[in-house]
Amino acid sequence: MAISLEYSFILVVLGVIAGIINTLAGGGSNLTLPALMVMGMPADVANATNRVAVWLQCASGMSGFRQHDKLDTQDIIPVLIPNLIGGLCGALAAAWLPTSWVKPLLLGTLLTMTVVMLVKPATFGPPTGTPVKKVADTPTAWFGLMLAGFYGGFVQAGVGFVLLAALCGTLHYDLVRGNALKLACTLAFTSLSLLVFIADDLVRWAPGLILAIGTMVGARIAVRFAISANPKLLKLFLFVMTLVGCLAAYLF
Question: Could you read off the pLDDT of 199-236 as tens digits, one per residue?
Fold first, then answer.
């Protein structure tokens, strides 16, 4: 697929913005998916091509958090086990259930996350000094991570918000470390889905990699911001992004 220089520039700029949004909160694909479809891609091809950028963005963000010692690498596997079990169930449900369920579930989930942030803000960032819990010792964390995985397998869009609720709300990670582990979960989801999309020849590599240049840069910018930002500012950004996600889900 031939891409003009002007459109390549637009993809990179949108990629930077989406990389920042996805790393600090979620919902960056609300920008990148329409941009890919404007190029004439069908929705399924745009969705598959977008995953190239998401995958590389997650890898870039995880690397940045790890360099700043904010990625708890020893916790990745325990977190991924219930998350991927839920993701498999969600993917199977998506194959069996009608697509008409997707939009109500997306909108309902984002509205719920918005209300939770207003009513119980500690869910997305416990008080400083709160000890982190282990997944194996916390049944509610297993359930929350499985639920987040199910949602991710079924809908995908907005899964970052649900993952943060599970990681910060049940295991008491702060928002920075929660975001780092969120990227690990998203990377695992995306790896599985990307393999399927590649096998079905749905990925358009040139626009996907151009978009990825932007998302990788955006992820690195977001990591630097997250490390130095006031936690209250991070929560405010997260709240605003849930509102934007609700609006996008309602309109589109």
Answer: 889 899 999 999 999 999 999 999 999 999 888 888 88
- Rounded to whole angstroms, the Cα distance separating 41 from 48 reads 10
Collect all residues with Cβ–Cβ distance below 8 Å to 144 and sequence separation of at least 6.
Answer: 165, 166, 169, 170
Taking residues 234-247, what's their average pLDDT? Answer: 85
- Locus of tokens 């079990």: 85
CA–CA separation, 231 vs 243, rounded Å?
Answer: 19
**Phi/psi at 4 (nearest 5 deg)?**
-70, 160
206: number of Cβ within 10 Å: 13
Structure tokens that stand for 60 in this block: 């870039």
Q: How far is CA 190 from CA 6, 49, 57, in A?
A: 28, 11, 11
Closest CA to 86 of 192, 204, 199: 192
Q: How far apart are CA 110 and CA 27, in angstroms?
A: 10
Q: Return the SS3 of 139.
A: helix
pTM reported for the whole predicted model: 0.88
User: What is the CA angle 11-249-214, rounded to 5?
Assistant: 20
| Dihedral class, residue 195 (left if φ above 0, else alpha if ψ from -120 to 50, else beta) | alpha
